[in-house]
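Structure in, sequence out. Go:
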């Protein structure tokens, strides 16, 4: 007696009669699934790279825009708004650096780190003279708050030491 699976043979004949291609073997199905999985992963990687690049563009645009800051930043609210914007550059640079690290994008990762360092430089340029670390003009020391308040004169006398 033969070991032919007549049910399987009948299915093959019916598929052929209906004009359908023959069923794929287990190996062919595995190869097809692997190819589909790789294609899906490639699309996800491209989307992640585009997202990381978009984040970096936003951070760099803010960093460039701060060079053209239109408001006074010597003291008071203008100073704090500027420093807040520089802080956003630092946080955004970190955000972009994490995204580029995960996306395995070395060039854009380096740019994200440079943007983050640029934000830190902007913060340091405004903070260090006011805390007495950087040399300043003793006649006109930088202050945190505008006006002739007692706090401003206390900071100025502290910087004179």
């Amino acid at each position: 007696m033969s070991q032919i699976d007549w049910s399987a043979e009948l299915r093959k004949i019916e598929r052929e009669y209906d004009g359908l291609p023959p069923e794929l073997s287990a190996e062919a199905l595995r190869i097809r699934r692997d190819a589909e999985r790789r294609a899906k992963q490639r699309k996800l990687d491209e989307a992640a790279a585009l997202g990381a690049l978009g984040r970096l563009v936003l951070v760099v645009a803010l960093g460039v825009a701060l060079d053209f800051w239109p408001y006074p930043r010597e003291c008071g609210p203008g100073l704090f708004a500027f420093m807040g914007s520089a802080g956003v550059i630092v946080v955004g640079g970190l955000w972009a650096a994490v995204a580029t690290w995960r996306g395995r994008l070395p060039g854009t990762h380096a740019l994200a780190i440079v943007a983050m360092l640029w934000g830190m430089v902007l913060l340091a340029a405004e903070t260090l003279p006011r805390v007495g670390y950087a040399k300043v003009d003793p006649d006109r020391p930088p202050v945190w708050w505008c006006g002739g308040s007692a706090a401003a004169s206390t900071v100025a006398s502290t910087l004179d030491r």
